[in-house]
Amino acid sequence: MNPAIGYAALALLAGLLIPVMARLNGTLSTTVGNVGWPALIVTGGAFVGGLVFVAAQRSAPPAALAGQPVYYWFGGLIMAFYVISITWLVPRFGTGPSIMCVVVAQLIAAAAIDQFGLFGAPARPMNAGRAIGLVLLLVGVFLAARPPRA
Where is 44: in which H helix or E strand? Predict the structure, then answer.
């Protein structure tokens, strides 16, 4: 079997679960009247899940962790920002529009990371096909995220 099929399936599953997480957090924040606690619950759950995953691998921390660029350590802060932001946005802006705006930003950032080989990624320059695909995705997200007409 082509490994790309498994990779795509895992990415699709992760993508399917992101709006579920956003909605659960948004509803919990509305119920408890606070954005911070639901965000802490999610990031705490992610920490525990990561610990279980690492423990299941039964491997010591790689020595190479110490020599990495400082900006590689910002992923956790970025995740916390995302979780807090989406937890606050979903009850106010809606699950669909919130996630769709996130997707637009992800597409733009991913294209820039690939184009310029940022953060250690191999450069994958933009070509006409990728540019057209990106524009079509952006137009689709814009159309889907628009509020319905009254």
Answer: helix 36-57
Task: Summarize the confidence of residues 17-46 as an average pLDDT.
Answer: 94
- Neighbouring residues of 49: CB distance < 8 A, sequence distance ≥ 6: none
Nearest to 146 by CA among 89, 96, 88, 105: 96
Query: What's at 124, amino acid-wise?
Result: R
DSSP state, residue 149 = P
Banded model confidence at residue 141, pLDDT cuts 50, 70, 90: confident
How confident is the model over 23-41, as a mean pLDDT? 94
The H or E element containing residue 87 is helix 75-93
Band the pLDDT of 30: cuts 50, 70, 90. very high
Structure-block tokens of residue 131 = 């540019």
What is 126-141 written as a DSSP string?
A: --HHHHHHHHHHHHHH
Per-residue pLDDT of 124-136, as tens digits, reads: 999 999 999 999 9
Sign of CA dihedral 50, 118, 123, 12: positive
Q: What are the two backbone dihedrals, phi and then psi, of residue 34, each rounded to the nearest 5 degrees?
A: -155, 135
Both tokens of 75, joined, read: 């992923």
